Amino acid sequence: MPVGGRFALIVLAMLALNWVLASQIPSDPERVTVPYSYFREQALEDNIAEVSSENDTIEGTFRRDVQYPNPEEGRSTDRFETERPAFADDEILGLLLSKNVKISARAPGGRSALATILLSFGPTLLLVGLFVLLMRRAQGMAGAQGGMLGSLGKSRARRYDASATRTTFADVAGIDEVTDELAEVVSFLREPERFRRLGGMMPRGVLLTGLPGTGKTLLARALAGEAEVPFYSLSASEFVEMIVGVGASRVRDLFQHAKDDAPSIIFIDELDAIGRVRGAGNLGGGSDEREQTLNQILTEMDGFDGSEGVIVLAATNRPEILDPALLRAGRFDRRIVVNPPDQEGRKKILDVHTRSVPLADDVDLGSIASSTPGMVGADLRTLVNEAALAAAKRAADAVAPEDFTGALEKTLLGTARRIVLSAEERRLTAYHESGHALLGMLEPGADPVRKVSIIPRGTSLGVTFQSPDADRYGYGAAYLRGRIAGALGGRAAEELVFGDVTSGAESDLEQATALARQMVGRWGMSEKLGLVSVLPGPGQETVLLPGAPGAASEHTRELVDEEVRHIIDECYEHALDILRGHRPLLDDLAAALLESETLDEADAYRAAGLPARGRTLATS
Ligand code: ADP
Ligand code: MG
Ligand code: ZN
User: Is 347 in the pocket of ligand 1 (CB under 6 A)?
Assistant: First the structure.
């Protein structure tokens, strides 16, 4: 049933209920209803003071209180009501006049017709009015910035119009392939003839996928600024709201607008909010609503035959949880992956975000880019912002390299905490971090150690930060074992030096275990288990839950646990061996840490008496 119909039905039902309830309220509790004969008797006994009548209903007051029907049961009252039978031809008027009764013809003293209606329907109308008002308010607040004050079920998509502060492709850096591909799609839209002549089909749906912060939303905004066609943007979570049945009609409305304005672009951000696999995770309420919305989108997209000139652009961080129906041919069949930027890309993104930031002459954005592998556009923006804040704190005119170093430290390692450690705790922490660092320095192929610190930050007492020289896109088994050994290096140093261990290695153990599990269960790096995938990848957790079809058997999962333990044990032994074999280096490094608390790359390698690895040393 359409939304409007359902709503109207509910209102009707409420009105009816209201009517029934209102009619149950006695019109006047004090007035006793008496038979006509009794009324006549009283008139004859000269006990009527006043009457008024409307049609055959007579109301009035007695001169003396009466108790009707009899003195034992009745209430004592002086007000009555009676019905005059149609066949009565008695001279009641003469009788009343002779008894000096005051007679009037105004409406009986009960409620007027208007009052009756108000009482019957008023409460319901009030409720409905209030409800509509609230909805208007809720929509008005959200829709206000967009200027489109939609009513119930109207899409709240915002139409972008070129404004003074529009985003352009110049604001998007370091992901040129993606930008080009999108621009190409738009060119189809603007010159459809070029394609149709060659028999090409316009893409109907384009899906942007990629990690959070890689610039998908930014890209869409830039497209809106550049495309020169109407651009409707909407966040998927806006479709699905508490009011049931609205999502689907919003979709219908949105597509209608877009078609009227064709050629045009519809942008649905965070598509996963509605596009999740149908029927999965139906625990909370509202999933029904989501499915209806999703179905409506599918229906609308199927309704395109390519001649409308409408392209649906969507973005998501989690393409793997999308309903397969969305990815079918003819829907979001063109997928564009937005990858995290490489070193050159990061440099360009830093350029964009420092356009309006005064930089000191010796700031080298290239070297910042090289020391931030894995960071995405949003991280880099935060980094620049932190650096600018630090410079402002110093009341400096320009942002200096130290501001960037500090900001990077803060972003990577967390903010320093002011807690005082005992001498013993400091010594233990120094050895713990030295253990991590030394393994990072000695393990062939390991990521170079960039910073070691025993200043407490966040939940940890110290940090060792390593990062590769170049961006990494895959991992070798030897490298991963080195990483596990490195993660266990802190605990190994504690055991070696103090003969006792602390709880400080909790997150190290978590990290080592997670790596080992993935090696065994996802990456086929265990001989015993072989090349099978046992553990769910990101987004597949529900699919491969134990017991689900396609999930690994009990036996296999036990084997995984066994192999994980095996790898960890081996790596821990290895860590102990290395540290034992280089005990003097460990002592030197710990002493240097105790003295200066934080060592950067060069200092750390010097303290350990090891040659620093040049930037040219490629990773395995
Ligand atoms: P996503 O939608 O992919 O999660 P956003 O588009 O919201 O990421 O990115 C957040 C912010 O990060 C942007 O507003 C922008 O300031 C910055 N950013 C991300 N990627 C880039 C990029 N390639 N170039 C410039 N800035 C970027
Ligand atoms: Mg986004
Ligand atoms: Zn540690």
Answer: no
Nearest ligand to the CA atom of 506:
3
Q: Cα separations (Å) of 486 from 291, 436, 457, 480, 526?
A: 47, 5, 20, 10, 20
pLDDT of residue 412: 75
CA distance 338 to 315: 10
Q: Is 457 helix (H, G, I), strand (E, B) or coil?
A: strand
DSSP string, 46-103: T-EEEEEEETTEEEEEEEEEEEES-TTTSEEEEEEEEE--TT--S-HHHHHHHTT-EE
Q: Do 501 and 486 meet the contact criterion of CB atoms below 8 Å apart?
A: no
Distance 182 CA to ligand 1 centre (A): 16
Q: Which residue among 209, 381, 382, 386 has the greatest number of ligand 1 atoms within 8 angstroms of its CB, and so is best to mutate?
A: 381
Asked if residue 381 has its Cβ within 6 Å of ligand 1, the reply is yes
Question: How much helix, strand and coil, in percent to the nearest 5, is found in the chain?
Answer: 50, 15, 35
Q: What is the pLDDT of residue 143?
A: 43
Query: Which candidate, 523, 518, 441, places its Cα nearest to that of 486?
Result: 441
Residue 338 in contact with residue 209, Cβ under 8 Å? yes
Q: Count other C-beta atoms under 10 Å from residue 548's C-beta.
A: 12
161: how many CB neighbours lie within 10 A of its CB? 11
pLDDT per 10-residue tile (average), the chain, 620 residues: 70 83 68 84 86 82 80 75 79 81 68 70 82 71 40 55 68 87 80 72 83 90 81 71 65 84 84 72 58 81 75 87 80 86 91 91 88 87 93 90 86 77 90 95 88 84 82 84 94 93 87 92 86 71 58 83 94 95 94 90 89 48
Q: How far apart are CA 171 and CA 232, in angstroms?
A: 20
- Running DSSP on this structure, what letter comes out for residue 227? S
Tell me the whole-structure pTM to 2 decimals: 0.63
- Residue whose CA is closest, atom 1 of ligand 1? 213
Active site residues: 433
Task: Give Cβ neighbours of residue 191 (< 8 Å, ≥ 6 apart).
Answer: none
Mapped onto helix, strand or coil, the DSSP state of residue 264 is strand
The pLDDT value recorded for residue 491 is: 94
> So what's the pLDDT on residue 148?
36
H or E segment at 352?
helix 343-353
d(CA 336, CA 319): 11
DSSP run (H or E) holding 6: helix 3-24
- Say what the alpha-carbon torsion angle 461, 462, 468, 473 is, to the nearest 10 degrees: -10
Residues within 5 A (CB) of ion ligand 2: 217
